[in-house]
Amino acid sequence: MANLKIIRERIKSIQNIQKVTKAMKMVAAAKLRRSQERMEQARPYEERLSGVILSLLPDVERNLLPLLDVREVNRVAYVVVTSDRGFAGAFNANVIRRTEEEIRVLGKEKVDIFCIGRKGRDYFKKRSYTIIEEQIEFWNDLSFEHAIKFGNSIISHFTNGVVDEVRVVYNWFKNVANQELRVERLLPLVYDEEKVALVDRLYEPSKEQLVRSLIPRHLNVEMWKYLLESFASEQAARMVAMDNATENAGELIRDLKLKFNKARQASITKEVLEIVSGAEALANA
Predict the structure, then answer these.
(1) Residue 97 shares a structural domain with residue 212
(2) What is the pLDDT of residues 56-85, one digit of tens each?
(3) Both 10 and 30 in a single domain?
(4) Eight-class DSSP state of 193
(5) Tens digit of pLDDT for each residue in 142-172?
(6) ∠ at Cα 200 (195, 204), nearest 5°?
(7) Residue 185, SS3?
(8) 32: containing domain
(9) Phi-psi map region of 66: left, alpha, beta (phi>0 left; psi -120 to 50 alpha)
(10) Fewer CB within 10 A of the end CB, N or C, for the chain?
(11) How are beta strands 131-135 and 111-116 bridged, if at all?
(12) Are 262 and 135 in the same domain?
């Protein structure tokens, strides 16, 4: 009977955990819908603005803005975008692992890190990496002002000459089941000649004035993109992880119930045999 009691307690415990994972899945699904809408609204604007910037860069001088200054890369800053909370599968682990691979190539002493999200901050802080800035506990109130604030400190780190390049490691939302890990260069702004479409346009005002006006806005929009993509990817990863956890809990409960029924049947059979044996012994006596 003690064995039956232990199995019953395990079933009850797993059922309680299953209720929690179901609730977390529902919360993640609700957040995903809202974050996905915002992300899909921002994507066309970011893509068109990037296209305009890329079409302007070949025709302007690099010394026009410090943000266009291409220098020899001696020191690099990494913007690591993770979440504040776990239970999202490999969402954070993939970002951290890829960042470490990148840093290993350059050397730990040549890298500065901007941590966006608690998970990345905790990991790199424990391992004594050079963390310039950390941003946590803002995801639930995420707004464009956060992108401007984070972007200003990252941009000033580059324009002051502390680092020669800024790279961003984040999860790009592909669909609910898949998130694509990406590493993108934020600064300096460069263009790929093969990807720039040659279009004859008339610009008013001049290209130089447009570049001065649009590039700061472009960088803020890029930062906004990283935050939106990562937040939507986090909710999708958490929803899938909690759905899998709920299903696994259900399978475990079914296995334990089968085990419980077998143990109970064995116990009943044993008691019946003892009663029959006792009755036969009395009859023979």
Answers:
(1) yes
(2) 877 777 777 788 888 889 999 999 999 999
(3) no
(4) T
(5) 999 999 999 999 999 999 999 999 999 999 9
(6) 110
(7) strand
(8) 24-241
(9) alpha
(10) C
(11) parallel
(12) no
